Amino acid sequence: VETMPLFKEASPASKTKLITYGIVEKVHKGTYLFNVRDHVERIYMIVSGYVVLDRINHNDNLRSIFLLGSGDLINEVIIDGQSSSINAKALSDLEVVSLTRAQMLEIMAQDFYFTQLFMASMAKKIRKLYRQVANTTKMMILEDQVSAKLWKIGHDYGIEKGEGVVIPFDLSITLLAQLVGSNRESVSRTIK
Q: If you average pLDDT over residues 101-124, what whole number do you get?
């Protein structure tokens, strides 16, 4: 809790509650934390590693919606008590801290910082959704979509190395296709 930038502005009382209530879990690469329609009682925050939030669309195609990394909230939307509306899959070995919805609401009631944290996380995801709608396949050339997505992933999660940027998790053609909302074959041709 003391080392996570996510909690730097939290009050000492809130940090104590996070330490008391929080459960640290290690999750292996490829494991799902939860799936669509699961009733999830815990809110997860990433300590280290990467998560992809995805969902199958009406055409039975898997669509990756968000990539998340260290310091991100994964499923703050369950604060409303409803079932999950998305899947969460570990893209790398992952370490998360989680609290129950009731515990997080208790902390939020006493420390406005946590309410702001949730609002900022949701706002960030909403803004990403706005960009995704603007960049859908029918509105933008696939080459531009793929280029923009690679740039954004490198900008958000990349590690500078020499004259380039290394993406610190496996970014397959399949995952890239899911992120841009296209099929694997078209994205593969675009990459070539």
A: 93
